[in-house]
Amino acid sequence: MTGPVIPKGIARVEIDAPETPETIVFVLLHNLSMLAFTSAIEALRIANQLTGKTLYRWTTMSEDGKSVRCSNGIEIGIDCALGDTPSNSRIFICSGVQPDLSTSAKVADWTRKQWRLGRTVGALCTGAYTLARAGILAGHKFTLHWENIAPFREHFPDLTPVEQLYTIDNRVMTCGGGAAATDLFLKLIYETHGPVLSQAVLNMCLHSVQRSETDRQQSSTSASIGVRNEKLVRIIAHFEEHLEDHVNLDIATEELGVSRRQMERLFRHHLNTTPKKYLQDLRLQRGRILLAETDMPVVDVAAACGYDSAAYFSKRFREAFGMSPHKFSAGGG
């Protein structure tokens, strides 16, 4: 068991310590996001430091008890292999890139057992893959990193993740990874120990504001493209929602209440491109994500990106990324 870590510090928050510290179990999978893991665990460390009390204990587990290498190449030591957990544990599966390859039946089975024992289970970044394979997510609100939502839906078509910072749904807690892990754990600190401590932890993390559970992971369309034109933003949102469909731009203009000429002018003036090219780029980016994060055949990826022909998709992919989708999928990217 790791912790408590209570170094001396100037900042101080006086609260009554619980009789039994809360235990957080982090199950680390290979290629996990180090940013998501450290964003979570540092919030707990700082809560202990600020109060000078053992509010939280934590431990790290891996499938075999051996060290785990993060997606950035840094290796993290592990306390123990999968095993028994205290009854008051909250368990978080920490994953990252290529989650379909990092998740194993053994970890999923262990997670399901913990759930059935009444533990709270959670996931950081792409850990939702493990919860899905454990059969825990059906009927629950959950999320994962936005880049992995499309591949996740291909793997688990009966499950629907939400694109928001984090979710708390009874005994299921998930976050999109990165700094969103700080937001999730600040929320947990707030619920257990109140606003004074959670605000103090936020300040120590130099986290400018406590973001809401329902905040989006990505910037709004207008912010990401640097344009506030409502018609253009509405058109782009329509494109993003229909990447799998055959989008007829003339029909889309009727549905969106703009003329084809006006649509062309908006894209040329604000983005220096055409609607057709912008839509194609969105589809190719979706295809690149699916090829990187799933084992879907190229023909299925092409269909999932709105292409009727795998050959045409391959041609456009090669033009955009300098290699065929088959080579990219095989690790050439």
Question: Can you walk me through this structure?
Answer:
- With 333 residues, the protein is an alpha/beta fold.
- The protein is built from 15 helices and nine strands.
- The strands form two sheets. It has a seven-stranded mixed beta sheet with strand order 5-2-1-6-7-9-8.
- It is globular.
- It starts with 21 loop residues before the first strand and ends with a helix.
- The mean pLDDT is 89.
How is the secondary structure organized here?
Elements: E1 22-28, H1 34-51, E2 56-62, E3 68-69, E4 75-76, E5 80-81, E6 90-94, H2 99-102, H3 105-116, E7 120-124, H4 128-133, H5 149-155, E8 166-169, E9 172-175, H6 180-193, H7 195-204, H8 221-225, H9 230-241, H10 249-256, H11 260-271, H12 275-293, H13 298-304, H14 310-321, H15 325-332
Parallel strand pairs: 1-2, 1-6, 2-5, 6-7, 7-9
Antiparallel strand pairs: 3-4, 8-9
Helix pairs in contact: 1-6, 1-7, 6-7, 12-14, 13-14
